[in-house]
């Protein structure tokens, strides 16, 4: 495929996919920029894997078009697209050495003269910090090292686009956190567009330049990690990414009136009528007396059910007057004056809350 380096790496226009009369993906339109680390994030069954398979060419869209670097890719088979894919299983060959695994695509597809392959393998292994591992058997490697070998193999031919399907799902928590940073570093070094599909919100927030959040086959928000977390477009996004307290009431654009709890000041909003007010627990303070609530804060009175020590923070659960449980996370130094079963006031700066349409 002859491509245009100034065009988006991926352009999806009205893309949909139907299986058995049901939409798995519906009306997705988005651009992925050149050299961007882009994540498609959503729960199981949201359509994210199907969307990725249409980008790779493993599935053809029922509706709409796929363009890669300005060239229509709809109908072009996967092996003729300038991309590669990294699977969660790594798909390494246990009978081959690390170097032969990395070189496999170049040899089979005859993409380089044999005289150049050894140097290309050396460069690819250096990129993932496995310089001295070329002669080892894959069976001798740890999970993190196998992941690095798979990355080196996927990038050795320098595709313009690399797709990653739940790439860190097989790693333990500590190693997964390390590899998130490593993948982002590698992506910056090679200048290849990375598109990852994941259900792991922390993974998407850590690695991505932008995130497309999917639900029910549709893309419901595209934004930076900060944008989807701090400015969720819907209750679904606010609940799926991170944790939020939700209060349902009526908005007039300046306050949200919640039955039984009162009127709470909010950032200026265009939403008028039925609305949800979302407040992140880490933005909520808690105190044992009303006179300790800072001036200008929104506040709710409740009963402290329990406080749970988390190490770096304490999570407080309050029962509000309408029976709603409201959660605050504070530093351990902020627990003075609070007693389980006693009165407590949850409070927050209005600008840290978010008004969402129903």
Short structural summary:
InterPro entries: AAA+_ATPase, ABC_SmlMolc_Importer, ABC_transporter-like_ATP-bd, ABC_transporter-like_CS, Mo/tungstate-bd_C_term_dom, P-loop_NTPase, PotA-like, Transp-assoc_OB_typ2. The complex is composed of two ATP-binding proteins (PotA), two transmembrane proteins (PotB and PotC) and a solute-binding protein (PotD). The protein has 358 residues and is α+β, with helices and mostly antiparallel strands.
Any overview of this molecule?
It is a single chain. β11 (245-251) and β12 form a beta hairpin. The chain is α+β, with helices and mostly antiparallel strands. The protein is built from 8 helices and 20 strands. The protein has helices at 48-56, 98-109, 114-127, 143-155, 173-190, 201-207, 225-230, 235-240; strands at 10-19, 22-32, 37-41, 63-68, 71-72, 83-86, 161-165, 193-198, 210-215, 218-223, 245-251, 255-258, 262-265, 273-279, 285-287, 298-309, 314-320, 325-330, 343-348, 353-357. The chain has 2 domains: 10-230, P-loop containing nucleotide triphosphate hydrolases (Rossmann fold), CATH 3.40.50; 243-356, OB fold (Dihydrolipoamide Acetyltransferase, E2P) (Beta Barrel), CATH 2.40.50. α2 crosses α3 (114-127), α2 (98-109) runs parallel beside α4 and α3 (114-127) crosses α4 (143-155). The strands form 4 sheets. The chain has a 6-stranded mixed β-sheet with strand order 6-7-8-3-9-10, sandwiched between helices. Its EC number is 7.6.2.11. The complex is composed of two ATP-binding proteins (PotA), two transmembrane proteins (PotB and PotC) and a solute-binding protein (PotD). Residues 10-241 form the ABC transporter domain. Belongs to the ABC transporter superfamily. Spermidine/putrescine importer (TC 3.A.1.11.1) family.
């Amino acid at each position: 495929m002859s491509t245009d380096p100034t065009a988006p790496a991926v352009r999806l226009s009205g893309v949909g996919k139907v299986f058995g009369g049901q939409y798995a993906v519906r009306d997705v339109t988005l651009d992925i920029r050149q050299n961007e680390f882009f994540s498609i994030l959503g729960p199981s069954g949201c359509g994210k894997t199907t969307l990725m398979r249409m980008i790779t060419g493993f599935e053809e869209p029922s509706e709409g078009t796929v363009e890669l670097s300005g060239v229509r890719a709809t109908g072009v088979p996967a092996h003729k697209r300038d991309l590669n894919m990294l699977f969660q299983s790594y798909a390494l060959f246990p009978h081959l050495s690390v170097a032969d695994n990395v070189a496999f695509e170049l040899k089979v597809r005859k993409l380089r003269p044999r005289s150049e392959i050894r140097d290309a393998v050396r460069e690819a292994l250096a990129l993932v910090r496995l310089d001295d591992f070329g002669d080892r058997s894959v069976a001798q490697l740890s999970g993190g090292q196998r992941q690095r070998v798979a990355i080196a193999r996927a990038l050795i031919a320098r595709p313009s686009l690399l797709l990653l399907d739940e790439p860190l799902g097989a790693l333990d928590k500590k190693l997964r956190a390390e590899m998130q940073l490593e993948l982002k570093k590698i992506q910056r070094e090679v200048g290849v567009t990375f598109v990852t599909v994941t259900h792991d919100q922390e993974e998407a927030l850590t690695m991505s330049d932008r995130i497309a959040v999917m639900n029910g086959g549709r893309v419901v928000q595209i934004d930076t990690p900060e944008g989807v977390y701090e400015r969720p477009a819907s209750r679904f996004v606010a609940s799926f990414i991170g944790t939020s307290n939700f209060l349902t009431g009526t908005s007039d654009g300046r306050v949200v009136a919640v039955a039984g709890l009162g009127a709470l000041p909010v950032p200026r909003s265009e939403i008028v009528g039925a609305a949800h007010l979302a407040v992140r627990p880490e933005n909520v303070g808690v105190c044992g007396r009303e006179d300790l609530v800072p001036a200008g804060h929104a506040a709710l009175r409740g009963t402290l059910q329990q406080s749970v020590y988390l190490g770096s923070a304490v999570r407080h659960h309050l029962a509000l007057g309408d029976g709603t449980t409201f959660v605050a996370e504070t530093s351990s130094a902020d627990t003075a004056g609070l007693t389980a079963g006693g009165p407590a006031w949850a409070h927050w700066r209005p600008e840290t809350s978010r008004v969402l349409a129903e």
